[in-house]
Amino acid sequence: MTVVRDDADGLVAWLAPGTPLLKPVLTDGRETRHAGPVAMFTADRVLKLDVWHGTGILKVSPPGKPWSVWYFWGADGTFRGWYVNLEREHVRDWASRRTGTVDHVLDLWINPDRSIEWKDEDELEGAVTAGRFTAAEAEQIVADAHTAIRDIEAWTSPFSDDWQFWSAPPAWRLPVAPTTHQPDLIAEELHSG
Questions:
Q1: What does the pLDDT look like over 117-173, one tens digit per residue?
Q2: DUF402 domain location, by residue (predicted)?
Q3: Nearest to 88 by CA among 39, 15, 159, 144
Q4: CATH of residue 130
Q5: By C-alpha distance, which of 13, 12, 18 is closest to 1?
Q6: Do residues 66 and 89 make contact, with C-beta atoms less than 8 angstroms apart?
Q7: What is the pLDDT of residues 96-122, one digit of tens each?
């Protein structure tokens, strides 16, 4: 991803269309969701070098929040909405210039009219069944979603920051494909989610 801004207000990064990425997939190459809400957390996975398909996504990671906010646009440039990805607060590794997080499965979709839809409740339930999260951790994730909803209803930052009007400068180049990775870290992430 390309860093747009990184300061006390948070990390803002751009995932441009066509950006190369490493992603976990099932051993037969299918997306992990094809395994179902429980097996998607227990089935064997491998890493696949791919590219980001579709329009770009602007991701805003506010400091101190267990979520990031993703901005989506349609192919014609029309703003489609905000996606609140519940996740562990980002941890920085300044030496490698990387940040890391763990997805908490449950998500929220906010339409341009600010109506809110819950997403992937079945996957959170599956994650508990699979042992990825305890029932208590799942309750905290749901509580975090309610906290995010309060921020949305109050229209706090980053929602109020007008990132939906941002666009990437045309001169920005795509990041290069990853050529190295930390196998132990990636293996740990594949098994934890």
A1: 999 999 999 999 999 999 999 999 999 999 999 999 999 999 999 999 999 999 999
A2: 41-155
A3: 144
A4: 2.40.380.10
A5: 13
A6: yes
A7: 667 788 899 999 999 999 999 999 999
C-alpha span between 21 and 23 (Å, rounded): 6
Whether residue 177 contacts residue 47, with contact meaning beta carbons closer than 8 Å, is answered with: no
Residue 180 falls within a domain, yes or no?
yes
CA distance linking residue 47 with residue 12, whole number of Å:
25
Neighbours of 89 (CB within 10 A): 15
Percent of the chain with pLDDT over 90: 72
Query: Cβ-count burial of 148 within 10 angstroms (0-12 exposed, 13-18 middle, 19+ buried)?
Result: buried
Domain region containing 109: 2-185
Q: Is 190 domain-assigned? A: no
Residue 192 lies in a domain: no
Closest CA to 174 of 3, 17, 60: 17
pLDDT band at 189 (very low <50, low <70, confident <90, very high): very low
Instruction: Find where tokens 């930052």 sit.
Output: 157
Which residue pairs, CB below 8 angstroms and at least 24 apart, start in 69-75? 69/158, 69/159, 71/163, 71/164, 71/166
> Considering the domain boundaries, does residue 36 fall inside one?
yes
